[in-house]
């Protein structure tokens, strides 16, 4: 029996994880979880899984639930996330929260020697150097949950790493993969959230459409698998059946294929090294797919992917700026404050104005992350005020 901490239980990945746990109650126990605002979903999870600890997004939610469930310990905010992730009983922490908020609880869980099932790519993008160093020092496994990184991890099992030529990360292309740059000028939030293959949270769906999500995955893959950026390739694969591939010096490729279902990489990570049966799922049938297509990525069409490689190669805190600027800009688009193509503009501008600090420390990275968010937030507010002035 593995005791699981699920950070981000009411999000799309959290829901998929709960379904996996539901199908293997003899293997897993949900000891702790966190949620942001959805009290109704959190209540249902508590009633079904009976955890020891629950971290709430705010004090009001904590007050409500603690009265209903007096035998459970409740926490709140960032402190609650850390308490949940470092609970003594916990064996595996699945980090499924969105954004840089996942960094601190993941690092603290590593320090407590918990196995990490990582679905929060921003943690490695923001501070991959420190996360991987801590994992090596504590002899902690970081098991990737993103379908692309899980595919690479699976394909590399039992392989001689010295014969590896490159990693090939597949990309669906997102909601606007067939749009021209001109056609993107006036797209809406509703259109952006209509992903052709995957059912995901709002922020990650926006990131998928801008190819920011793939850029983050490139940086994450660099840290997870210790592969130079020159040996990482992204290809357009519309069907999202081949989740990623690895290529070797002898010319051969190994690929991992499966349905567009996040339960599969979650089950693999939680069960590792054992492969467990996927419950309540129709067996995957390639004959129903018929054909698989692969195309070169157009970096002119998707400039955020090109920028990811540039920031990754520069290293230091450039990936931190790349991620932080995007979190603010993507959410601003979701809130109707900026237009779709302005996401790219604000991210590129933040990276352009960034000056790298010498002898970078983890504390510096955390400060740069905060400073970048404030910078982009103020730039957006200023642009809005100028636009409002023009209308007057």
TrEMBL record:
Residues 142-225 form the 1-deoxy-D-xylulose 5-phosphate reductoisomerase C-terminal domain. Residues 257-374 form the DXP reductoisomerase C-terminal domain. SUPFAM superfamilies: 1-deoxy-D-xylulose-5-phosphate reductoisomerase, C-terminal domain, Glyceraldehyde-3-phosphate dehydrogenase-like, C-terminal domain, NAD(P)-binding Rossmann-fold domains. The keyword Metal-binding applies. It catalyses: 2-C-methyl-D-erythritol 4-phosphate + NADP(+) = 1-deoxy-D-xylulose 5-phosphate + NADPH + H(+). GO terms for biological process: isopentenyl diphosphate biosynthetic process, methylerythritol 4-phosphate pathway involved in terpenoid biosynthetic process. GO terms for molecular function: 1-deoxy-D-xylulose-5-phosphate reductoisomerase activity; isomerase activity; manganese ion binding; NADPH binding. It is an enzyme of class 1 (oxidoreductase). 1-deoxy-D-xylulose 5-phosphate binds at residues 121, 147-148, 172, 195, 208, 213-214, 217. Pathway: Isoprenoid biosynthesis; isopentenyl diphosphate biosynthesis via DXP pathway; isopentenyl diphosphate from 1-deoxy-D-xylulose 5-phosphate: step 1/6. Its EC number is 1.1.1.267. Residues 4-128 form the 1-deoxy-D-xylulose 5-phosphate reductoisomerase N-terminal domain. Pfam families: DXP_redisom_C, DXP_reductoisom, DXPR_C. Keywords: Isomerase, Isoprene biosynthesis, Magnesium, Manganese, Metal-binding, NADP, Oxidoreductase. Mn(2+) binds at residues 146, 148, 217. The keyword Membrane does not apply. NADPH binds at residues 10-13, 37-38, 120, 122, 201. Its cofactor is Mg(2+); Mn(2+). Belongs to the DXR family. NCBIfam families: Dxr (TIGR00243), PRK12464.1 (NF009114). PANTHER family: 1-DEOXY-D-XYLULOSE 5-PHOSPHATE REDUCTOISOMERASE (PTHR30525), 1-DEOXY-D-XYLULOSE 5-PHOSPHATE REDUCTOISOMERASE, CHLOROPLASTIC (PTHR30525:SF0). Catalyzes the NADPH-dependent rearrangement and reduction of 1-deoxy-D-xylulose-5-phosphate (DXP) to 2-C-methyl-D-erythritol 4-phosphate (MEP). This is 1-deoxy-D-xylulose 5-phosphate reductoisomerase.
């Amino acid at each position: 029996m593995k005791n699981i901490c699920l950070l981000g239980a009411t999000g799309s990945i959290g829901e998929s994880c709960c379904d996996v746990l539901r199908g293997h109650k003899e293997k897993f126990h949900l000891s702790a979880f966190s949620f942001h605002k959805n009290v109704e979903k959190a209540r249902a999870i508590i009633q079904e899984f009976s955890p020891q600890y629950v971290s709430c997004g705010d004090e009001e939610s904590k007050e409500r639930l603690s009265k209903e469930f007096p035998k459970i310990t409740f926490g709140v905010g960032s402190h609650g996330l850390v308490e949940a992730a470092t609970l003594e009983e916990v064996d595996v922490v699945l980090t499924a929260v969105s954004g840089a908020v996942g960094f601190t609880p993941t690092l603290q869980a590593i320090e407590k020697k918990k196995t990490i099932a990582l679905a929060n790519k921003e943690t490695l993008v923001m501070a991959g150097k420190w996360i991987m160093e801590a994992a090596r020092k504590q002899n902690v496994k970081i098991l990737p949950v993103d379908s692309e990184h899980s595919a690479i991890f699976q394909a590399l099992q039992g392989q001689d790493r010295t014969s590896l030529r490159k990693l090939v990360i597949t990309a669906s292309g997102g909601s606007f993969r067939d749009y021209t740059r001109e056609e993107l000028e006036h797209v809406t939030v509703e259109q952006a959230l209509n992903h052709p293959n995957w059912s995901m949270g709002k922020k990650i769906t926006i990131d998928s459409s801008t190819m920011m999500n793939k850029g983050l995955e490139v940086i994450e893959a660099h840290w997870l698998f210790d592969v130079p950026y020159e040996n990482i390739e992204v290809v357009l694969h519309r069907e999202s059946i081949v989740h990623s591939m690895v290529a070797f010096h002898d010319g051969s490729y190994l690929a991992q294929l499966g349905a567009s279902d996040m339960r599969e990489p979650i089950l693999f990570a939680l069960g590792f090294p054992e492969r467990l049966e996927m419950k309540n799922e129709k067996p995957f049938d390639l004959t129903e797919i018929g054909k698989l297509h692969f195309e070169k990525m157009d970096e002119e069409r998707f400039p955020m992917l090109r920028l990811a490689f540039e920031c990754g190669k520069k290293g230091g805190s450039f990936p931190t700026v790349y991620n932080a600027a995007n979190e603010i800009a993507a959410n601003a688009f979701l809130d109707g404050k900026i237009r779709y193509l302005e996401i790219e503009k604000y991210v590129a501008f933040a990276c352009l104005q960034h000056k790298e600090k010498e002898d970078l420390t983890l504390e510096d990275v955390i400060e740069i992350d905060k400073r970048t968010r404030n910078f982009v937030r103020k730039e957006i507010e200023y642009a809005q005020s100028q636009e409002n002035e023009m209308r007057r």
